[in-house]
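Researcher: Next entry: Tudor domain-containing protein 5 (Poecile atricapillus).
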Amino acid sequence: ASKQAQLMEVLKKEVRAMLIAAKAGLTPEQLEEQYMAMVCKPLPLRDLGFQSTLELVTQMPEVVRICSSKNGSLILKAIADDSTKGIAKLVANQKVKIRKASKKTYTKANATFPTKNSKNPQSFQALSAGTPVLPAAVKAELQDLLSSSPLLLADLDKAFLRRFGRAFQYRQYGFLSMFEVLRSMSDSIVIEQTKAGSLLVLRKYLASRIEQEEVPQASAAKMPPLEPINETESFYQEALPMDSEPVQTQAVDLDDHLKRVSGWTNDLYIFHHQGFEQSPPSPEIPPDAVQDRSLCSLPPLKRKCLVGVIVEFIVSPSQFYIHVCSREASYKLQDLMFEMRHVYSHKVASDKYIMPESAVRPGQLCCVMVSKWWYRVIIHRVVNDQEVEVFYADYGHLQIVQKSWLRFLKWHYLKLPAQAIPCSLAWVKPVEGTWSSAAILLFKHLCRFKELVGIVDEYVDGVLYLFLCDTSTKEDVYFHSVLRDMGYADVCGENIPSQEFEELNPSALYVQPSGKQGNAGMVEPDLHLQQESQDADSETATSKLDGAEL
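Model: Predicted structure:
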């Protein structure tokens, strides 16, 4: 009975945090989905003796208000307590008007930093709200759907369901309509009006048609069709990468492109003439396979600079990974994913890079296929004869995968620095010594599918400590203040080394600091937010955020 009571108290905090974050409330079904997505397990109905979610929430009258919508469905809304009334007010003030896609220009980072004397900070007042962000995997699925041929908008839902086995539910990512989704991907998807209706065309598809007019058709004819080597289990969406910008077609060096295509197709020609069925894959390691090299990290960001960020993967407020909203880096990462899929999904090329058992060892940089997409990973540990645990250098999470899914990484894919930056929220520590599940849940809600403003404080042992701010509300929401006001964190005015990263920091173990490998370039933030340090002599720029007053 005491365990059930403790579980119920924890669950009340989690449910209240989830419902407060949902301005319009949630249906019982949506609450189940949100809980599963955030906590990675279903609501503990049976453990508490309930038959349904509705029965559960009726036993939380001080936490949940049950309302009826216009269509008759039940909506669950949060009842704020003394510690959460301020947060509920901020959520209630959240802007809901449709965003204008053309409003892409953000002012230079001329907003002031909150000072110790600023009770109501006006920082970021000139920064407007960012549009919702599709997870990178979902973007890639839409682009993949259009990669073979254009598609009528009216047929998109059916085609997506047929291809990926699920409906495309854009509302769960914060979009109000499908047209808003397409506007957010206008750099990669074009809408052409035809007699049959709106036609969705991939910009790279248009570019390839122009390129084919200039490139001899014989080279293109030798390219085999895209054919995945095998099916895998679906990858849990919370752990999948969430990128910040759609792919944009960029200029390509045709000479370099033709050399790569020519060399690759020549390998295929020789292989087929040797006999595909009679000759097993060569056991020799290809000369362009990476064996003893490491990825390098991105260059460090300047102190006190403002930068747009997307939080990719969260363990706790003291351990999470971000992507910087840099157009160039975003395009390069997505281009890398597409190119790796194109190369490794051909059985001939894939078999060429199969890793022998001797190469499957901790610290080995390679790539892995999950849900038909290929990712750069480092082997963290060998679990057993069939499985290894790998670290996703571009996204920040660890996952156990099959050894058979691994392949040597081609040397060409070593150039792009590891894109995931290990981070910890500045100036906070958990009140209970460790972060509670409710605190982690709230932090995930604050970060989820949003482009945020980060204020760089400092680096400690390779971990970036930064403040996070959501500028999509009428009042800027500082995450460290939210965690403090909810009673989950103490704002201590200094950065306490992250206990989680001290126990395990895969980036520090496997990724070289920037500059030790000559292929790293400086991070160039998006035009939305200028990555420039404030004047060192400016009082507002040099003053730290006063957590006690924010």
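Model: Note for the record: The mean pLDDT is 74.
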